Amino acid sequence: MLSEQSAATVRATLPAVGAALGTITERFYAGLFEAHPELLRDLFNRGNQASGTQRQALAGSVAAFATHLLDRPGQRPDAMLARIAHKHGSLGVTPEQYRIVHEHLFAAIAEVLGDAVTPEVAAAWDEVYWLMANALVAVEQRLREERGGPAWRAWEVVERVTETADVATFRLRPADGGPVRDFLAGQYVSVRVALADGARQIRQYSLSGAPGPDLRQISVKRVREGGAPDGEVSNHLHARVRVGDVLELSEPYGDLVPDAGPDTPLLLASAGIGVTPMTAMLAHLADSGHRAPVTVVHADRSPATHALRTDHEAYAAKLPDAAVHLWYEQDAPAGTHPGLADLTGVPLAPGTRAYLCGPLPFMRAVRTQLITKGVAPADIHYEVFGPDLWLAGQSA
């Protein structure tokens, strides 16, 4: 909770700081990477830095956190913090790195806002930063302790399956032959690869299934749009990684997991490669004897680009009360819908809890439709691949 004095100062300065956050985060990253080039090389996603999406996500999260402190002073935004903490945990972010970020972020604030940053203003926003940072450090420490073991572990590729022209599934076994920790359906792992220029870039990929007790499975879409360095890890995996190669993986992280009993109605909505966590969820629901209605929604360009389609439909068919609704922009076969996903005519059971994964415009559209249909906003959960621009949109 912000102190009373700081709350008044943050409230008064939030419009000015919020309006300048885009410029502030741009200067922040420039200064950070000049002083610590290893962070861009080996921690931050270079594609997101090149496109500017990471800057937007940082600005959005800071503004959303400050707004929450002002609007709901007695309540911490745990859902937002948990999502960020899981991502940081999977990346191996350390408490010391928060101090490095603080140094360069506040230098950027002073540079951009100049004389407007009085000692009182600096102290108030310093309090905001450390409330957020210390909360994240605590959650990340708990997550690491729960998982145990090293931050990174070597895994050997034991099978590679072509799912579509742009999606490949990799099945991996620990190179050390040790045990494999269970994961929760919907979680992801970070994958760290050594690229040709010496960088060790990291990306998160959902665990798309549980092929065996000693295996991990990820399904990776090759990102073709945009120039280098966009898609550099996915293209590396597609072009270079074969059976017998070794990758570094984190332990499973992520909070988009079905938190519901067997009698809770669910909706699992995905688009494109967002199908990966949903397939794992459906497998888990089928194995655990879920009894309540499950509504499966998926949108894709065409049946040929619908990765894991066979598993997606087969796991749904194992449930006693499941309805599958598919939309394809091209070549929609009988029994599916042409065009973009539209839930207007999709019936939902009262008390439905929804889980979404896919491109941001898809998830925002689905969320709006669900709320219109009476689903409580607190019962709509989502996962974002890459920077969380949802927060950036909320704070705009």
Plain-language structure description:
The chain is α/β, with parallel strands linked by helices. Helix 10 links the parallel strand 8 and strand 9. It has twelve helices and twelve strands. Helix 1 runs antiparallel to helix 4. Strands 1-2-5-4-3-6 form a six-stranded antiparallel beta barrel. Helix content is 45%, strand content 20%. The protein is globular. The longest helix has 32 residues.
Tags for this entry?
12 strands, 6-stranded antiparallel barrel, alpha/beta, 396 residues, globular, 12 helices
Secondary-structure class: alpha/beta
β-strand number:
12
Q: Stretches where pLDDT falls below 50 for ≥5 residues?
A: none
Spell out the helices and strands N to C. Answer: HHHHHHHEEEEEHEEHEHEEEHEH
Mean pLDDT equals 93
Strand order in the largest sheet: 1-2-5-4-3-6
Compact description:
This protein has helices at residues 4-35, 37-42, 46-51, 53-71, 78-91, 95-113, 119-147, 232-240, 275-288, 309-317, 360-372, 389-395; strands at residues 153-164, 167-174, 188-194, 200-209, 216-221, 246-249, 266-271, 294-300, 322-328, 337-338, 353-357, 380-383. The chain has 396 residues and is α/β, with parallel strands linked by helices.
